[in-house]
Write a structure and sequence with these properties.
Helix content is 31%, strand content 20%. By secondary structure, the protein is of the alpha/beta class. It folds into two domains: 5-124, Rossmann fold (3-Layer(aba) Sandwich), CATH 3.40.50.300; 127-176, Wheat Germ Agglutinin (Isolectin 2), domain 1. The strands form four sheets. The chain has a four-stranded parallel beta sheet, with helices on both faces. Strands 2-3 form a two-stranded antiparallel sheet. It has a two-stranded antiparallel ribbon with strand order 7-8. The longest helix has 16 residues, at 161-176. It is elongated, with a radius of gyration of 17 Å.
Length: 177
């Protein structure tokens, strides 16, 4: 979170539009943080998108597109990997943004499979709010064990590996006491 994933997705899709390519953008129906239909970055840049319930809907709705964008890919089912393979096999470009790890630091949803089949992977990082290093973890600061917990700055904070490990140790100590 806070690394600019959606911002980069929007940037790449706008460039495709400028080049005259037909784009389609999809996001999971569950993601209603900023807008029910638009893909919106933390910096409030946006593009119209189509919210979908499952990844199989993308295959049906992306027919006319030359470039297909998918935001918050971690919230989709594992079938997204096959869907993206099929779209790419049709000669279309697929641009995906998503978290590679969940709040516990584990691979998240279809992201590992998507990264494995991708021709290119750009990993962007936030800045650790504790020490200023590159952050690669989204540390949940609210008390919830649900895998999917929509949120922003009041629910999550970006942490580097070291600070994330220290927070994990603190949590273990609290649980044991």
């Amino acid at each position: 979170m806070f690394s600019g994933k959606t911002e980069e997705l929007i940037r790449r899709l706008k460039r495709a539009q400028i080049a005259g390519q037909k784009i389609e953008i999809f996001k999971p129906e569950v993601d209603i943080r900023y807008d029910e239909e638009e893909v919106v970055s933390h910096d409030e840049n946006s593009l119209s998108s189509t919210p979908v319930k499952s990844s199989s809907n993308i295959l049906i709705l992306a027919n006319d597109a030359e470039v297909v964008g998918i935001d918050e890919a971690q919230f989709f089912d594992l079938e997204l990997i096959n869907v993206c393979n099929q779209i790419a096999s049709l000669g279309k470009r697929v641009v995906i943004a998503g978290l590679d790890m969940d709040f516990k630091g584990r691979p998240f949803g279809p992201m590992p499979g998507l990264m494995a089949i991708a021709e290119y992977v750009t990993k962007v990082h936030a800045i650790c709010v504790k020490c200023g290093s590159l952050a690669n973890h989204s540390h949940r600061v609210i008390d919830s064990e649900k895998l999917v917990e929509l949120g922003e700055r009041t629910e999550y904070e970006p942490l580097c590996r070291g600070c994330f490990a220290r927070e994990d140790l603190k949590a273990e100590k609290i649980e044991k006491s």
